[in-house]
User: Fold these one by one.
Assistant:
Number 1:
Amino acid sequence: MNSTKAERTHVWRNYFTMIFRAGLPWVLMAVCFLLSLGAAQLALVFANQVADALSPRNNLSDATGPLLAAFLIGMAIVLLKVVGAHLQGIVTAKVDRNLQRYAVERVFYLKTADVESGDPRELITRLTEDTTKNSPFLVDLMINEIPRLYYLIVATVQVAGIGRPILTLTLLGVIPVVFLGSFVSGRITFKIRNKIQTKIAALTARLAEKINHAETIKAYGTEDKEIATGDAVIMELDKAKKQGALVDQTNAFIKNLMWFLPLLLIIIPPAVLLFNGEINQAGFYAYILIATTFRTYTAQHLDLWVFLKDAQGATLRLSGLLSKESEKSDKPAKIPSPGDIEFSDVSFAYGDHPALCNVSFTAEQGKKTALVGLSGSGKSTALNLIEKFYDPSAGRILLDGKDIHDMDYEGYRSLFTYLPQNAPGFAGTVRDMLNYCAPTPYDDKTLSEVLKTVGLGDDFEPLGGLEYEIGDGGERLSGGQRQKLGVARLLLCDTPYVLMDEATSALDVEATADLQEAIDKAMAGRTLLTVAHDLTTVKNADRILVFNQGRIEAIGTHGELLQTSPTYRLLWKEVQAA
Ligand SMILES: Nc1ncnc2c1ncn2[C@@H]1O[C@H](COP(=O)(O)OP(=O)(O)OP(=O)(O)O)[C@@H](O)[C@H]1O
Ligand SMILES: [Mg+2]
């Protein structure tokens, strides 16, 4: 999901939209702002107080009061800064947290096609890393910028009040010197940080996929090949990081230079004026104190600029993700009225790859419709379109005569339970798997009964029963157990429409027959669309659709299709030969 030209043009609009939608801790930010403003004001008072304390006096005891006051003001500044920095840290953490929550929500509501348009695993880095790169800029800008500008303006007015134009000029001369440094440093920082983040995302994505499929790598003996290609990604990251280290040092150099050069600029002119007797000592000290803080506040724009560039990069990477259409609607979900499902001249392609071509059929309400056909003929795609994972590129899909395109995702999908092909479980216990779609957890009796129904009555008993941990993606289950558990979960969901894709393909003949019987019993009166290679499981369907290379070759009952469809006859012959 690389950034588009429009996203680059609207990067700052996207940035603020994103952050404001995620939510900001306004009260805490207001407190931080006041602390920051207080510190800026006290810094001005401090300079004048010290100048006053150091003014020529008759004896030292006359200076004690002003010195003590300057000391107390100094301590107050320290206190305000420490408390302010601490609260600002909390604000930053809260903004990160809100943005992460917002981004995670958006990702789960992305349309399937958008998730698939990039590398979904790179999303992980977007969610964990990029979401933390936006807050420093906003927090610094909103909390500290106005106090900083306030200080810079008031300080300039005060120095102008001394009546020596050279002092005002040197003070203002600090600004271009610091800004030039900031600009150079910001540009190189942006480029390299962007590059490092992209490389980290690529490495995470690569390792996540390969480590998750370690068995395949071992089975083919391709460990060394994988290590070599993994190494190439690591080396690219290494290169980017080395460039990053150079950039960091260049930044440090510029930063030090920005400390040193303005300091010379600040000290020399008033020192000359003091020697010439054109200003007194108090004026000299007041100017030096004001000007050094002036330099510090100006130099903080260097940090702000770096934060800005970081935020710009992170926004570009994130807005590719967050500006996509969401499946979540602001309006309350509307559950459509049930009826027949009708495909009317539907075509669909995955990118340039056509998968369905002018498909028309009706799956009657309350009936069992089977989808059969050779591998790759478009059966799963048809179910994916019914589930609204994708929109047809042509034609319409209707529910009870109405186009499903106009129905909200949540309300429409609430009518369906879908058991996708090879549907994995998630890490957790057998109980978690069965309760996955339950509004409230089922009781043990219901769970034990459903396990018995799908033929898993005794399987988990020696392993801890319902508390057995099935592992990532159900990896600690056999292929058949995984399918049976998927069916068990499906049987627990009481929706009027059920979509099943190869629910029993991993089972032996006897287990398939038993499970099919349980499924047919549970589905009586509900609308079932089922995909199967094993025609014995769909022989009794009210209507069978034969898919052939993305088209419908024939529609009918088992008996009819044996007469009319060559593909069906072929598939049936295979079943009988098995
Ligand atoms: N996510 C995807 N992206 C791109 N192409 C896809 C995707 N899913 C399926 N296809 C392609 O679409 C076509 C139809 O695939 P589909 O999965 O619908 O077939 P199927 O009939 O379910 O096959 P099988 O019986 O093997 O499950 C195939 O050519 C396949 O390569
Ligand atoms: Mg399929």
Number 2:
Amino acid sequence: MYKWKCGPVTLFQSDLYMTNSIVVETAECVLVTDPCWLPREVEEIRSYVQDILGGRRLLLLFTHSDFDHIIGYGAFKGAEVIASRAFMDKSEVEREEILEQIRTFDDSYYLQRDYEITYPQVDHVVEQEGQSLSFGDLQLTGYAAPGHTNDGLFTVVEGAGLLIAGDYLSDVEFPYIYDSSLSYEATLGKLDLILSRHPVTLLVPGHGEAADSRLEMERRKQESREYIHKLRTAAASGSQKAVDALIAGCAFPRNMSKFHKSNQELIVKEMAAGAGS
Ligand SMILES: [Zn+2]
């Protein structure tokens, strides 16, 4: 699943849903994000990290709490975990639901893991917008990114020019909105602020290919915004044909149409409640 290495950044991409796991190295630290999905894939990342770690500090960042993104946590016990306040504040019931999704997934494919499935215990919380966290020579800046889920995080790795976007700004997925379309739009709006504050040269989304130009980052943002606007209009018109047409030509229609349908349901509910109109 090793895909490429560019300076301090190494990308691993799962065969499942093109999910990205990133390893970033500095002189003093190794940072791993969202190690996933399949047991052999998690093991590949774990052993890569073990080989390069030396005496460096090991940090594990979660972009959000969707089960596919935290599934590899147990293989990195001992790492210091970084996540958002909302990620840490998930209730026992919510945590159990997420873990149950992992168990259901593993049962579905008869997958065995040599580590325990548990919810990540957070050591370093991003509490404030634009908060910096320093780990020796590794400096991260975090921005809350709700909309997809309520606990998403945009993270800039200073010095590496890297923006870790979680499940936003993908080139393969249109917005998957589980939390709120208004929050989703506000999160997309933060891209400009982040690009104006930080010398970002590489954006890695949770799924799909990285973007290495600002033009491409902007294009993705615009495309996501348009999708949400058009979905509101089409859903309000009551024309299912107009709704369906929005994802014509998408990459994996048999699966993606389900997410489009849930987006439609969520947006209809929001509009009925008077939001987003
Ligand atoms: Zn995801």
